[in-house]
Design brief:
The complex is a heterodimer of chains A (664) and B (86).
Chain A lengths: L1 E7 L7 H10 L7 E7 L2 E7 L12 E2 L5 E9 L2 H10 L9 H12 L9 E9 L5 E6 L8 E4 L5 E4 L2 H5 L10 H10 L13 E2 L4 E6 L5 E4 L17 H19 L6 E4 L4 H14 L5 E7 L7 H11 L2 E7 L1 H15 L8 H13 L4 E3 L4 H4 L4 H14 L9 H5 L4 H4 L1 H7 L19 H8 L7 H6 L5 H6 L11 H18 L1 H8 L5 E3 L5 H9 L2 H4 L7 H5 L7 H4 L22 H6 L2 H7 L4 H13 L7 H21 L15 E3 L1
Parallel strand pairs in A: 2-18, 13-14, 13-16, 14-15, 16-17
Antiparallel strand pairs in A: 1-3, 1-9, 2-3, 4-5, 5-6, 6-7, 7-11, 8-9, 8-10, 11-12
Helix pairs in contact in A: 2-3, 5-16, 6-21, 9-10, 9-28, 10-20, 12-19, 19-20, 26-27
Chain B lengths: L2 H15 L23 H15 L10 H4 L2 H14 L1
Helix pairs in contact in B: 1-4
Classes of the chains: A alpha/beta (664), B mainly alpha (86).
Chain lengths: 664, 86
């Protein structure tokens, strides 16, 4: 695992010191060594964390003619097969590394190589033949990040994080107003948008090719339907499917746990991560798998009972990081610096502190359960959509809407029968679908997001009044999106927005790589996701039971406490994490002051002040989702401005002894 | 205490705690705040708290309905009835 960075400059010779400063910005990702390749105006670099072929895997990999160079960040779990395939065709390898496999695969297949890869990666290739071109590629789901910026001279700068890009040129950054509009609506940016003006992300499952000084072309190399028609016919029994599931699941865990170092496992208390840990321990034959959990002092968020019960039952070597409410506010600026994006929740903070602990224990790789809810239909969104359709057919029904109580049993306003009747009026406007809205499943969430527009300043709203963020979402939807039914469309949108641009990035890559810890995602393994897509729908969502097959395929091997534990959304204290005894941390006081808010110009000072006042005076146990989300979004955006635009606050990776750049 | 006083206080509460894109002065007095999107589902809990504490009344479970609380006017009416009983 690593970070990568580089550029093409058409005006002047590339210099090593620029490359070195770019890598220095992301050295938390790869503290073990810096490697670089420089040829005329081209520079490619890598900051490496050694996990596979620790000695031989030095980067960049360069061919004998020195015409092609490759750097990459990630893991290619099928590289041994690809390597064997190339060797059978006569390729002679010098090392046993993934990066060399990528080099020879590119020499054979060109940019088509990406569709052969199973894993998590961002790759940059310089091909000096035929006038020269640069090729970038990113994994299917966006586990590993890749940003790029077109330059005035026709060149291009790229890097794993925006900080690396900012280290080249004048370093000036400004916030992208469209990105803010997207985040207020969808909770994340979408498509190729980044939170900063003039900088793009390479969307997951895409490649970028720039030949000479021509405009870069971005192409999608992967697109998926999540509900494939079953090819098995009616003769496959549920037991057969369970057996297939066990086989596929174990195979995914085995592939994804590939490493020459010790692998640990995150344990949330829920079924997704518990099953990974249980199967992993069994497969690697390690008696005491190291597991890691987040616990909260505030019982509202704490799941340690469930975590400890699983850990005890299976004899894991279990480790817990206990988070207090004040930890949230204290660490939030650094977390925003790592995330480089507006955040709508604080749940990233505990994950950042957890990876610090994992790093201190000398563990570089952890398995995690992201992706199960998208692939096996775990989210409330899927059930909510089904209920809206069902109720919408008989909007006068007294009991159809009551089904929402089953889905949202964990929310106090639904759990308490006192409020339940009235609660349903909230959904009433979203039952009908008179205009055949292609995004019907998302209507409630997006309307909730839109309600937050009140916090945006009048100038901002005026400037963006013609901008419709849905157009930027639509431009990047998977092929065949509209042919899918409600559930499949909801899956697609979740995969392309929340999963890619929040769970795997702001809560995933950026939080774990902030402490040089690499996450592994068996539920997002290529073969596993294709298998899951082909499973009959009712094995995933059965009535209102979520992830049915995951809960049942392993039978009694998975204890009752894990199998039947209702889904609990992972959350951390939001406003409660900042207002300690009615007081905000000093930085938040300053950033949310009417003067600063007015100066930055994005938000309405009156409404921000009112929200802060509410935080100071209100019983924060009684503050709803909307206020919490508004507060965290505004504060994180103001921090982005303070850190990246004004450069008032600064952070550096906590890695001492900066490695020297070794050119190949 | 008149209907108008109660209404004013409810509107002031909404302005302070549930800002929306709709000018609070222009909220239709006879439409559901939930359906208008002015409060979210949790807002109901906050609203009941507000009414009970502001006027020192108790709202029964079977009164937390669209019929009794589904608009600013209905809520004002509910408060008024309860205060008159006292």
């Amino acid at each position: 695992m690593c970070g990568i960075a580089g550029f093409i400059d058409f005006s002047t010779q590339a210099d090593a010191s620029t490359l070195s400063s770019m890598l220095e910005q992301i050295r938390h990702r790869g503290p073990d060594c810096f490697g670089g390749f420089i040829y005329q105006g081209v520079a490619l670099g890598s900051a490496r964390l050694s996990i596979v072929d620790i000695e031989g895997g030095k980067q960049p990999a360069v061919n004998d003619a020195r015409s092609v160079a490759v750097v990459f960040n990630g893991e290619i779990v099928n590289y041994l097969q690809l390597r064997a395939e190339l060797m059978a065709q006569g390729v002679q390898f010098r090392t046993n590394s993934e990066v060399e496999t990528l080099l020879y695969l590119y020499l054979r297949d060109g940019p088509a190589l990406f569709s052969r890869l199973n894993g998590q990666f961002s790759v940059a290739i310089w091909d000096g033949r035929d006038g020269g071109k640069i090729v970038l590629g990113r994994d299917r789901f966006g586990i590993r990040p890749l940003f790029w910026r077109p330059e005035k001279d026709g060149g291009l700068t790229f890097g794993s994080e925006i900080k690396a890009l900012a280290a080249r040129g004048d370093g000036a950054l400004s916030l992208n107003k469209k990105a803010l509009a997207q985040t207020f609506r969808f909770w994340t940016v979408v498509g190729d948008t980044s939170p900063f003006e003039g900088i793009y992300q390479l969307p997951p499952g895409c490649t970028l090719t720039q030949e000479g000084r021509q405009k870069p072309r971005v192409n999608r190399y992967w697109s998926q339907h999540f509900s494939l028609p079953s090819e098995d016919g009616p003769n496959v029994s549920e037991e057969d499917y369970f057996a297939q599931f066990r086989e596929q699941f174990d195979a995914a865990i085995s592939r994804q746990s590939m490493a020459d170092v010790t692998v640990g496992s995150y344990l949330s208390g829920g079924i997704d991560s518990s099953i990974i840990a249980i199967r992993l321990q069994k497969m690697i034959g390690q008696e005491h798998l190291r597991t890691y959990s987040i616990a909260f002092e505030d019982k509202e968020f704490d799941e340690s009972d469930a975590q400890n019960a699983v850990a005890k039952e299976f004899g894991f070597n279990h480790n817990t990081v206990k988070i207090s409410s004040s930890d949230i506010g204290a660490n939030f600026p650094q977390v925003v610096w790592q995330a480089e994006a507006p955040l709508f929740r604080t749940a990233s903070v505990p994950l950042f502190l957890l990876s610090r602990r994992v790093h201190q224990d000398g563990i570089k790789v952890v398995m995690t359960g992201e992706g199960a809810d998208e692939m096996l239909l775990g989210y409330d969104l899927f059930r909510e959509t089904a209920i809206r359709r069902f109720w919408g057919r008989q909007p006068d029904s007294k009991w159809r809407g009551q089904l929402f109580r089953k889905v949202y049993h964990y929310l106090p306003q639904f759990r308490n029968p006192r409020y339940a009747n009235m609660m349903l009026d909230f959904y009433r406007p979203f039952l009908k679908d008179e205009h055949n809205d292609p995004h019907y499943p998302m209507a409630v969430r997006w309307a909730n997001g839109q309600a937050l527009d009140v916090y945006l300043s009048a100038e901002y709203k005026e400037e963006l009044k013609c901008y419709n963020p849905i157009e930027d979402l639509d431009a990047w939807l998977f092929d065949g999106y509209t042919q899918g039914d409600d559930i499949e469309r909801a899956q697609s949108i979740e995969v392309q927005s929340l999963l890619a641009n929040y769970l795997l990035s702001s809560q995933g890559d950026r939080m774990s790589m902030g402490h040089a810890v690499e996450g592994r995602y068996p539920y997002l393994d290529n073969e596993f996701t294709e298998f899951a897509a082909g499973l009959p729908r009712n094995l995933k969502l059965r009535g209102l039971k979520d992830k049915f097959i995951l809960r049942n395929a392993f039978g009694n091997e998975i204890p009752e406490i894990v199998r039947n534990r209702p889904k609990v959304a992972y959350q951390a204290p939001d406003m409660k994490g900042f207002f300690i005894d009615g007081k905000l941390p000093a930085y938040a006081d300053e950033l949310l002051s009417p003067e600063r808010v007015r100066e930055v110009g994005l938000f309405d000072p009156h409404h921000v002040t009112r929200l802060v006042e509410k935080g100071r005076t209100f019983n924060l146990d009684r503050v709803g989702f909307r206020d919490n989300m508004a507060f965290v979004l505004i504060l994180s955006t103001m921090l982005l401005d303070d850190i990246f635009v004004r450069k008032n606050m600064s952070f550096v990776s906590d890695v001492s002894n900066k490695p020297k750049l070794c050119l190949v | 205490m008149s209907m108008d006083d109660i209404r004013e206080k409810i509107i002031a509460y909404l302005q302070m705690n549930h800002p929306s894109n709709m000018d609070t002065r222009a909220i239709p007095l006879d439409e559901s705040l939930l359906e208008l999107g002015i409060i979210d589902s949790y807002g109901v809990v906050e609203l009941v708290d507000f009414l009970e504490q502001s006027w020192n009344i108790t709202i029964a479970d079977n009164e937390i309905t669209k019929e009794r609380m589904g608009s600013i006017n209905k809520m004002a009416q509910l408060v008024l009835e309860k205060k008159n009983v006292d």
